[in-house]
Automatic annotation (TrEMBL):
This is SAM-dependent methyltransferase. SUPFAM superfamilies: S-adenosyl-L-methionine-dependent methyltransferases. The keyword Methyltransferase applies. GO terms for biological process: methylation. The lineage of its organism: Bacteria, Bacillati, Actinomycetota, Actinomycetes, Kitasatosporales. Keywords: Methyltransferase, Transferase. InterPro entries: SAM-dependent_MTases_sf.
Length: 286
């Protein structure tokens, strides 16, 4: 999560909670974001990402997936219109104010905005688009994603790879039981922000709506592991998936319910461990 995880396309229900966005962005970058590293690695390995790859990351957040692509030799551009605090952390990671590092990352760009802001004269076509924020765990979490992909597709060459990510089946995602806390506490009269089981064709449906051609898929184990329950609560709250619940009740209540839901996943040494499976789809531009 995003993982959506953070879901930048999710219309949260209820009144907007008061959140320290800077602290939450740090919790995401320091605690939660690494949970999807196996997903990033599997996709990059399958697509042979490296020298010659020009990657456009949609909803890039704090940039860990981009950093991993850069380490493989890719030229990357990240865009994010919804989380300026996370984008600031991405700049710290990818564009440090060090002359030598800046030269080494001359082909790295970070843009606050959408695909249109990533376009420009002299910008070569991208051959890989990624939308790594997982969908398929909350009602409405794919809203806007197809239009985002439609806007990005013209920036890529014919047949360029487009990667979408989603939650796996609930029976293979231990975290799904914890995510139901959001449904329990959020406004029951609204569907946005409610937990729902992932559908087998979630990713394919988004791709078809965006005019993309599915061209393969895979599943990756992405366990969520935390040093303790407090870290788990902070990490899960940083995803934004519980915003509707916080808005409908308050953070104290959500913290309490989350702590109780995490109890079955707490191990004897105090750590928290939740096995999960995530799915990715590779599609192709027209």
């Amino acid at each position: 999560m995003t993982p959506t995880l953070v879901q930048s396309h999710l219309p949260h229900a209820g009144r907007a909670p008061r959140v320290d966005l800077g602290a939450r962005a740090r919790d995401w970058a320091e605690i939660q974001e690494r949970m999807l590293v196996p997903l990033y690695e599997a996709v990059y390995e399958r697509l042979d990402v490296g020298n010659g790859t020009r990657l456009l990351g949609l909803g890039c957040g704090s940039g860990l997936a981009l950093l991993m692509a850069v380490a493989r030799g890719a030229a990357v551009t990240g865009v994010d219109a919804s989380a300026p605090e996370r984008l600031a952390l991405a700049r710290d990671r990818l564009l440090p104010d060090v002359p030598a590092a800046a030269r080494a990352r001359a082909e790295t760009r970070l843009v606050e905005g959408g695909p249109a802001e990533a376009a420009g004269p002299g910008v070569p076509a991208y051959n890989l688009l990624t939308a790594f924020q997982p969908i398929g765990c909350m009602a409405g979490d794919s809203e806007g994603l197809s239009s985002l992909l439609e806007a990005a597709a013209p920036l890529a060459g014919h047949g360029a790879a487009v990667v979408l990510a989603g939650w796996g089946p609930p029976e293979r995602c231990a975290t799904s039981t914890v995510l139901r806390v959001a449904t329990k506490l959020a406004d029951p009269l609204r569907s946005a922000g409610s937990w729902r089981p992932a559908s087998r064709d979630d990713l394919e449906e988004v791709a078809h709506r965006a005019g993309l051609r599915p061209d393969g898929s895979g599943r990756v184990a992405c366990p969520f592991g935390y040093a303790d329950v407090e870290s788990a609560v902070r990490g899960l709250l940083s995803t934004g998936l519980f915003d509707a619940a916080v808005g409908a009740t308050d953070k104290v209540q959500v913290d309490k319910e989350l702590t109780e839901a995490l109890h079955p996943h707490r191990r004897r040494d105090g750590t928290v461990w939740m096995p999960n499976v995530f799915r990715y789809l590779i599609a192709r531009t027209p």
